[in-house]
Every structure is written in structure tokens, then in C-alpha cells.
Amino acid sequence: METIFVLLPLALLIAAIAVGFFVWAAKTGQFDDLETPAVRILFDDEEPRRPAPASASPAPAGPAGTPTPAHSPSTKAESTRRAPE
């Protein structure tokens, strides 16, 4: 019987907090558009921007200010490739 005096107010407090969050979400417009997020995955993304030509940007510096070789890989996928034999 003693636990009901603790659990009942605790349950009512949690329910009141949940109702408060629901009212807050409804007032701030969280439920205004339920269709767009569901179909957003079907739309194509914008085309990625192409990087500027290499001659337009200065060469990146390596460790201790030494310039890196022109043939150094620019992405991780390229850096994991094997060198030609």
C-alpha cells in the first residue's frame, strides 16, 4: 500500500510531462506537414559541386611546410589503392 503513494504521483507527473511535450510540439508546428518528410527520400539530391581546377588553388603543404607531390591521393579511397606494378 505504501508503494502506491509513491508510484501514483510519479505516474501522474510523467503523464503530465508527456502531455506538456505534446502540447509544446503541437504549438511549435511539429505536426504541420506529415507528408513531405515521408517522400523526401524519393527526391534526388542537388548535384554536388565540382572542385575548382588544381591550377587555381595553391598546392597543399605537407609536414614541416614541405610541398606534397603532385600525384598524392586526395581521398581515402584513392590512398588505399595499390600502386601499379
Question: How are the elements arranged and paired?
Answer:
Blueprint: H1 2-27, H2 36-39, H3 76-79
Plain-language structure description:
- The chain is mainly alpha-helical and 85 residues long.
- It is 40% helix and 0% strand.
- The chain contains three helices and no strands.
- The longest helix has 26 residues, at 2-27.
User: How far apart, in Å, are the first and last alpha carbons?
Assistant: 81 Å
Provide the succession of SSEs.
Answer: HHH
- How can the largest sheet be summarized? none
| Share in helix | 40-55%
**How many helix segments?**
3
Secondary structural class: mainly alpha
Low-confidence stretches: none
Mean pLDDT: 77
Secondary structure tally: strands: 0
Strand content: under 5%
Shape: elongated
**Roughly how many Å is the radius of gyration?**
29 Å
Give a quick summary of the entry.
The protein has 85 residues and is mainly alpha-helical.
Descriptors:
elongated; 0% strand; 85 residues; 3 helices
